[in-house]
Records
---
Amino acid sequence: MATRDRLVGSDASFFKATVAASATTSGAMTAGSFYKIAAISGTTVFPSGYAVGDIFLGDAAKTLTSANSAYLLTATEALDANSFKIEFSADEIEVTTLSDSTKHYRKGKNDMSGTVEGINFISEMKVAGSLLNRFVKTANATSAYVVSTLNAMATSDIFGVFYLQDDGTTSGETQAFMVAQIEFYGYSLGAAVGDAQAWSSGIRLIGNDPIVYFKAN
């Protein structure tokens, strides 16, 4: 029987993922990996309802082909993140007419926004493709002041894997996670006596509609 049905913050984790440059067109999927669908033909590999660009949870019983291909995502836990918040909303469109005695509304398009926050880690900040590197160029120098690497501002696609329940091994538990292509719209650097050096960034959905997966252990 599942013991983690009522979730708390420590059940969660956040991963950043990048997408392979070319699609996988042969061989079995890797179970538990994430794939961005590149091509769909029928429902043998990808069930009905999936679309090109959606994120699919790898199934080792499914074989990819040129007709049913996908880009493998490489996910890495964001060790410097300590919180995230995702908000869903929709426009309220007033459709009231003169003959109505009360106001009438229609639901507009859904919207998703959020925030990711964390603590500045040197080990995370200096890596090519880091969140800092998405806003400024970064350079790594040796102890002899020799600049060994200059990282241009990162522009590659990035995906968020938001685990609401990140226990994938305990029998009876259910993993819960959302995978979505996102973009970060802010970063902060600074310090204050007695406080951790923290960062915060707004995020927006920029790809296909997100999918929330519930995976039984």
---
Amino acid sequence: MGANIQQHGPFEVQEQREHLMCANIVGAMSCHESAVLVIGIAHLQSMCVKLKNNFQVRAYAFGPELL
């Protein structure tokens, strides 16, 4: 049996999705000072870049050894 390999993207759809996610997070955080946001690894780096314009951001990723 072969590997299940799927193409990631299209990038334009991913970018639109993340801009909407960012706007929703900014709106939801308007009355909070801190939060923990759990997102998938495919969004981690690019969402941190988007969110750092509005927040102090720290990112952490865990590996499967913690499961």
---
Amino acid sequence: MSYLPPIVPESEVAVDRIFDLLKLRVQSDLDKNERAEIKQLIGIYPTPAQAVVWRQLIKRKRDEAMALGRKPPQ
């Protein structure tokens, strides 16, 4: 299993949205529109296991940027 998605969103809005979509993916299969959106944002529709790992990594990256006193790139 890859430890990062093929594309890692950089804008604050995209990071927040993928964070929410990955949470939903962990819980269940997404509908057609959400699948398309997640593929657009990270390049692939993840398995629930991938969604767990990727969500944690994206959260860590976001938290590190905020701890350094800067917002993630927009």
---
Amino acid sequence: MNKSNPTREYVNDVLDTTVDDGTLPPQLRDLLVNDFPLANLNGADRQYFRLYSENVGLMTDEAYPPQESYAQGSIGSACYGDPDYNAHARDTITSIKTETALLDHFARTSRAVNGWQQDKFSESIQTSRVEDNRSEEGEEKRGLARLLG
């Protein structure tokens, strides 16, 4: 743990998401930033975030042609008259990753309702400071006891 700031590692561990392995589209990665769990959301904010993430999911789905579509690869390029077009349907794994990223976003933002996550961090930091103070006091007494004894 970092000696200069013992809470930094804890906060980073709590906010870290293992869902983003670098293969998610940018719009989904944006939903997984560490700012959302640290927000102080009310019920209306939470509803907005839920609807927004659903819209991002729909836009992500629409960026890929359906499995049965002919508008994939070079045929899609010819259909659209775009030589740079090379979209292919998403495989099952990518679809699952998308759903998992949306669920992760939903779970992470639920920790922000009424500042819950920040309250938990404050409680943890206060507890850590009290424990640190107790251990320092104990060391001082043992040290004085050795000098006087």
